[in-house]
What we know:
Structural class: alpha/beta
Distance between the termini: 16 Å
Number of strands: 11
Shape: globular
Order of helices and strands: EHEHEHEHEHEHEHEEHEHE
CATH topology: Rossmann fold
CATH superfamily: NAD(P)-binding Rossmann-like Domain
Largest sheet: 11 strands, mixed
CATH class: Alpha Beta
Radius of gyration: 16 Å
Strand content: 15-25%
Helix content: 25-40%
Number of helices: 9
Amino acid sequence: MKTAKSFGLPIVHSAINVASGREGRPSPGSRKGNLMDPADRNRVGIIGAGRLGQAMARTALRAGRSVVIANSRGPASLTAVVSALGAGASAGTVAQASAAGIVVIAVPWARVPEAVQGLEWNGQIVIDATNDFDPGDLDGRTSSERVAGLVGGARVVKAANTLGAAVLGADPHEGGGQRVIFVSGDDVDAKSAVIALFQDAGFFAIDLGDLIRGGGVQQVRGPLAGVNLIRLP
């Protein structure tokens, strides 16, 4: 397994911002999202209940968040999934999942438009964990730019797409270090919240910058696609 050091990435003791060189979580002063009920801010909604959705649910639960997981077939179809996830997880409708403070899109790329159609976006943070495995259809844009256009009113952060579901959902403490997770987006406060989520789950987060530059290196055929790094002390 590669380590962060072997790729020439900085080895530090806090989340880092590669684009700016700053250490620590993003500083205040960016755009502010809509105020939400505290319960909603601490809840993570998962749209998609396959392997990726379940991996993100386990990550959020490990971070101490409650989870609402949803699919196109309705809550009744998720009894076994919720039972396997355990305490803190519940099944809901897609609309209920989308009302959480942080919403994860975890459906296959071709189903993204249908999955988010008709939902209300009022400042929620949307984690785009999807991958377009044939990015030739993006016309030079990043896949997350496409997603952002489908969820107008939300704040999109690209994350959790560079690791396979089995790795993403496993304990990120490995080999005496922490598994690295990459994050990119245009809203500093949204990235701060996503970084906090992954840090609380045990990951070491690296901020790659804005959605175009950072998302470009994270997506399929980008240099970080499929890269599994461990940050050593």
